[in-house]
Amino acid sequence: MKENKGFTLVELLVVIAIIALLMAVLMPALNKARAQAQLIVCRNNLKNYGLAATMYLETHNDKFPFPLTCIYSRATFTDEHPWECRWHDAGVVPDGPLWPYLSEKGVHCCPTFAGIAKTRGTNHPLHIAGIPIKPSFSYSMNGRLSAGDSISPLADNLGQMIGLGQVRHPARVLFFTEENIWIIHRTNGDPISLSLYALNDMYFGTVKYGNGDCIASFHKANDSKLNTGVSNVLFIDGHVDEEKPYDEKDKILGYSDKSMKLTFGVDVLIHGINY
Ligand SMILES: [Zn+2]
Ligand SMILES: [Zn+2]
């Protein structure tokens, strides 16, 4: 009688082929599940930003903190540690007025963003070479909540800080959101770029006619089509929604349409201007 110990080469090859087939079938589903889990972590991060900001507002007469310096104070900005690199600069300690309400939570970086930033962070147009990319912040505050009509985040004026009561529709105005680390170029020879000047720098400033900031596009997008997805957006009323960076149908020259609407809201009175 023939003894049959172990597997023959053919049997092994068949088993390996089946495993490879299963991997091929399961991997997209696993990747999708992981992306979905990361989206939920990110959404939860922003909800925590909303809770922290609510606590801040309650103890500051409902006045918003200045967006550019709410996490890192002005004193931390130096030539060696420029504010555009704060999101990945481990060499500076956060000390801004909103920080005491957030520091313990560990909710400052979207896992999807962190993964992308590790490989693309040095491509950031404003990156200063020599500061290692250690993504630790991925949320930017709506600059229009306190910067008045100035489009320069550095031209802050604490007297211009607005109050919660001046935002007519808190459910429609962006509070904190995500930004990309690359410029979005529109298609078909369109010269418009979105986020030309500042990308993920913890300050979200849109410009009415020009290349302003633009919300992120990397969630729910393929690795090869990172401009096609959505961003998580925290609104002033505390809810978080997914939003696409722009609507093709609203395309106007030099106008970051969707992001512009989200920063000003609809029918929102800021500094006497009805946006
Ligand atoms: Zn995210
Ligand atoms: Zn940098």
> How many strands, what sense, and barrel or not for the largest sheet?
5 strands, mixed
User: What fraction of residues sit in β-strands?
Assistant: 5-15%
Euclidean distance between termini CA atoms = 90 Å
Task: Figure out the total of helices.
Answer: 4
The count of strands amounts to 9
Low-confidence stretches: 148-152, 267-275
Counting helices, strands and paired strands, the structural category is alpha+beta
Helix content: 25-40%
Question: What is the radius of gyration computed over CA atoms, rounded to a whole number of angstroms?
Answer: 22 Å
Element pattern in H and E? HHHEEEEEEEHEE
Mean pLDDT: 82
Number of domains: 1
Attached small molecules: zinc ion
Q: Taking strands numbered 1, 2, ... along the chain, how are they ordered across the largest sheet?
A: 5-1-2-6-7
Anisotropy-based shape: elongated
